[in-house]
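User: Structure please.
Assistant: Input sequence and predicted structure:
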Amino acid sequence: MTASHAQQDAMGETVTARLQAVRRSIADTCAASGRDSGAVTLVAVSKTHPAEAVEEALAAGQRVFGENRVQEAKGKFPDLKERFPDLELHLIGPLQTNKVKEAVALFDVIQTVDRPKLAEALASEMAKSGRRPRCLIEVNTGEEPQKAGIPPREVEAFLAACRDTWNLPVTGLMCIPPVDEEPAMHFALLAEMARRAGLPEVSMGMSGDYETAIRFGATHVRVGTAIFGARPYPAA
């Protein structure tokens, strides 16, 4: 997907136009839910899309982005962060412990803290580097065996350990509901868990269900395809 100025898909829509549409949808959903639109942060998920697409979103005023992989983000964002000092980068994919040093150096928020070994590694690197990106605990709300995340019944104890044992700056929870289940009940569960824990940030909702997530209290929605179009996966 390349274009000299506007990143266009087959329908002729640009990143700018789709971003504006998503912003309007967020504002409308917030208004209908009695929420201030400023209470919801749009995380533009740019995974697999080129830096040019990110640049168009930046030109349209977007400043918060999400990436799934440390290596891909390393190839795309250091230069952009130099040019746009207010750019905020979120890691929204699984983090291997051998990538923790790079992740702490590059990301401003790590949304996928999902196990004690990772929490310990993050704490160690933060202590060494002095850099302390905000952390969200990933909750496996559907308790799916193939999926990362802390089971709901273990979140309270894990949060306490993150705070008291590892001194991590945990500010919220995130989840990815099962694809074959109604997301609303998972969003309601995550929001209630965050409320009980006194955590201000709730990251939930993607391109297909972010309006529902907002209605249930999301403070961060992770939207990729609705902004950047279909992902340009390389041919096998």
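Residues 1-6 have pLDDT under 50 and may be disordered.
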